[in-house]
Amino acid sequence: MIYLDYQATTPLAPEALMAMLPWLEQGHANPHSPHRAGRQARAAVEVARDQVAALLPQGGRVVFTSGATEALNWAIKGASGSIVTTAIEHAAVLDTAHATGRDLTILPVDDEGLVAPASVASGVAPGTGLVAAMLVNNEIGTVQPIAALAEEAHRVGAWMLCDAVQGYGRIAIPDGVDLVALSAHKIHGPKGIGALWIRDGITLPPLLHGGDQEGGRSGTLSPALCAGFGVAAKLMAARGEEDMAHVERLWTVAIAQLGPDWTINGSTDRRYRGNLNVRREGLDVARLMSDCRDIAFSAGSACASGSGRTSHVLRALGLGDAQARSSIRLGFGRYTTEADLTAAIARLDATARAQRP
Q1: CB 3.0-4.6 Å disulfide test: which of 29, 110, 171, 218 passes with 210?
Q2: Would you say 161 and 130 are in contact if contact means Cβ atoms under 8 Å apart?
Q3: Are 331 and 6 in contact (CB under 8 A)?
Q4: Exposure of 181 by Cβ count < 10 A (0-12 exposed, 13-18 middle, 19+ buried)?
Q5: CATH code of the region 2-8+239-355
Q6: What is the C-alpha separation between 84 and 126, in angstroms, rounded?
């Protein structure tokens, strides 16, 4: 199996697994217990917290959650006032914003998947309590102007929530943000843990009640998951330049090999290049996935697969249903070899051509 679905989840780093094993095998104490074993577990949690915080702005605290979905729900439901977000946000933002029942402004994007500065200035108005936007889009990889959005948010006294799930450790997070949502399994860490970074001075009402173990967030933490997340974050810091150079090489190889029959969805300049979303006229993606079962790739966001709907992200770019349905997403990164990528693209391209020469 050639794995090209890094936006859905990344392979677990061996170092993260090794950091988790002692806590899975023997370190079974509750990190919130006062005895020695509990204090040892708590120490591991705090080391992980510092490792995660090292890639975030100064002047805030990291609160561990069950994942980015919980972190985003907590931030959005904990804010007050109206909400401003973009048309290409993850469902964890859009659905949660709708669920609050508060006034919601959804900013359009251009055909490259970028928010227009004029729409930001007109959309953020007095009474806005929260502006929420992705740093790196999960479907098309475009990088949004988070710093400019934060300035507009602060102009009217609103908080800036940055969904950094796909960008954390890859794209610098601007200092002007107030809340940042993270997920461990997008950076070669374990599933089942994420975090919300909260700027000092901001207090969110609890989303979960019953213990307040994290100072605003209730629930027993897993030292194993925390340790895996922390080491994964530490590796992102240590290997950042190496990983980005590797991704750039893979992107260049992939673009050259695909050729003119494939069109890139989204900006090629303001983009994380480990995300390659492309379309081919007349492509039957379901048939392609069936014929290439030994290659793991996506027809869109894993979180929306099976819904039968075309991607709201691709529609927001102005693509029609036929174009959206003929698009695939290839995600690659640290553990993708050039040989595997070229072999997979050759297979995908040949199979697509066999459908419609």
Answers
A1: 218
A2: yes
A3: yes
A4: buried
A5: 3.90.1150.10
A6: 11
Beta bridge partners of 143: 136
Tokens representing 299 are 């027809």
Fold classification of 14-235 (topology level) = Aspartate Aminotransferase; domain 2 (3.40.640)
Residues annotated as catalytic (active site), given as ranges: 303
- What string of DSSP letters covers 112-177? TS-B-HHHHHHH--TTEEEEEEESB-TTT-BBP-HHHHHHHHHHTT-EEEEE-TTTTTTSPPPTT-
Can you tell me whether residue 275 is helix, strand or coil? strand
Q: Which two tokens stand for residue 232?
A: 């994964």
Question: CA separation (Å) from 91 to 10, 19, 314?
Answer: 20, 32, 14
Percent of the chain's residues with pLDDT above 90: 94
Looking at residue 302, its pLDDT comes to 45
Q: Is the pTM of this model over 0.70?
A: yes
Residue with tokens 């006032």: 81
**Residue 121 pLDDT level (bands cut at 50, 70, 90):** confident
Q: String of b and e for 236-273 (b: at least 16 CB within 10 Å)?
A: beeeeeebbebbeebbeebbeebeeebebbbbeeebbb
- Report in angstroms the alpha-carbon separations of 333 from 45, 194, 274, 336: 27, 20, 6, 5
Mean pLDDT of 78-102: 97
Which neighbouring-strand residues pair with 327?
Answer: 279
Domain ranges of the chain: 2-8+239-355, 14-235
Quick: pLDDT tens for 258-312: 999 999 999 999 999 999 999 999 999 999 999 999 999 998 644 445 556 789 9
Instruction: List C-alpha distances in Å: 302 to 160, 268, 329.
Output: 26, 22, 10
Q: How far is CA 104 from CA 86, 258, 295, in A?
A: 10, 40, 39
Burial, 232: exposed, middle or buried (Cβ in 10 Å; 0-12, 13-18, 19+)?
buried
Average pLDDT over residues 75-99: 97
